[in-house]
Amino acid sequence: MQTYKRAEIFAYAGLKNETNNINRSLKVLETMNLVEMTIKDKPRSSLQMYQLTDKGKELLRKVGVEI
Q1: Cα distance between residue 27 and residue 20, in whole Å
Q2: pLDDT tens-place string over residues 9-54
Q3: Is 49 helix (H, G, I), strand (E, B) or coil?
Q4: Phi, psi at residue 7, to the nearest 5°?
Q5: How many CB atoms lie within 10 A of CB 32?
Q6: By the 8 A CB rule, do 30 and 36 touch?
Q7: Other CB atoms within 10 A of residue 36 CB
Q8: What InterPro entries is this protein classified in (predicted)?
Q9: Cβ neighbours for 6, distance < 8 A, ≥ 6 positions apart
Q10: Please, are residues 29 and 56 in contact by the beta-carbon 8 Å criterion?
Q11: Which residues contact 17 (CB under 8 A, 6 or more apart)?
Q12: 34: part of which helix (H) or strand (E)?
């Protein structure tokens, strides 16, 4: 499964990697079960990455994004 760093997700979305974007955007995606952390028990780990859930992949397919 493909994993992404937080900065990569924001770059793809055209957002800056700032605290406000983390709280407004990334947390929303997590709450909606579209992305998930790879190290669930250590959310502040410098090694933390994110991956699309099946629900996230399906949403991207529906809007025409090839993954």
Answers
A1: 10
A2: 888 888 888 888 888 888 899 999 999 999 999 988 999 999 999 9
A3: coil
A4: -60, -35
A5: 12
A6: yes
A7: 14
A8: Fic-like_C, WH_DNA-bd_sf
A9: 17, 22, 26, 48, 50
A10: yes
A11: 6, 7, 10, 11
A12: none
Find out whether 40 and 48 touch, Cβ atoms under 8 Å. no
pLDDT on residue 45:
93
Categorise residue 62: left if φ over 0, alpha if ψ from -120 to 50, beta otherwise.
Answer: alpha
Would you say 52 and 46 are in contact if contact means Cβ atoms under 8 Å apart? no
Q: Are 53 and 4 in contact (CB under 8 A)?
A: no
Please say whether the beta carbons of 29 and 35 come within 8 A.
yes
Q: Which two tokens stand for residue 11?
A: 């770059």
Place of tokens 């991207």: 60
